[in-house]
Design goal:
It is built from eight helices and no strands. It is mostly helical.
Length: about 180
């Protein structure tokens, strides 16, 4: 009979610990469900995902937000896939970051765009996040990076989806 109560107590303690682990942030604090290169780039950039918060809302620097917006903008052009080199060079020159930081941003940015539900919805969400982060001072840097992405594209002109995104950008930042 004593063994039965001990077994019952062990099961109750196990269930209690299991429920506490599920409820709390003991297991998944700062861990993102992504491939190893993306997790490594996020760690080097200081990006930490938070439970129950959208991944775009956890972006903490305007530079990473601008890089993600550039990646979303490049993905809107369906005619040609933009290689990473022009994006890395543009981020390095326009945002005044090191080459390793620019390459880490170029690795992490497409994952953030995918978490945002695709290029167009992510671009709008990222635009709002950039406005929350800095209220406009990085807008000039963003426009220069987007210009570099457009110039690196196949035609040198924005696609219709990219032009619509520029209109949404102007509405959110109230420049038009």
């Amino acid at each position: 009979m004593l063994e039965f109560f001990l077994l019952l107590a062990a099961i109750a303690v196990g269930a209690y610990v299991y429920r506490r682990m599920q409820r709390g942030a003991y297991v998944t604090v700062g861990v993102i469900a992504a491939p190893a290169p993306i997790r490594a780039a996020a760690k080097r950039l200081g990006y930490r995902a938070q439970p129950n918060v959208h991944s775009i809302n956890t972006i903490h620097t305007p530079e990473l937000c601008v890089a993600s917006m550039a990646a979303a903008f490049a993905q809107m052009d369906k005619t040609q896939q933009l290689p990473d080199e022009p994006l890395i060079a543009s981020l390095q020159n326009r945002l005044q970051v090191t080459k390793t930081e620019a390459s880490d941003m170029a690795i992490l940015a497409p994952w953030l765009v995918a978490q945002g539900g695709g290029a167009t919805p992510a671009f709008q969400h990222l635009t709002k996040r950039l406005k929350q982060l800095d209220h406009g001072p990085d807008f000039d840097k963003l426009m220069r990076v987007l210009g570099d992405v457009t110039a690196a594209g196949s035609k040198g002109m924005p696609s219709p989806a990219q032009a619509d995104a520029m209109g949404a950008l102007a509405r959110i930042f109230r420049t038009a």
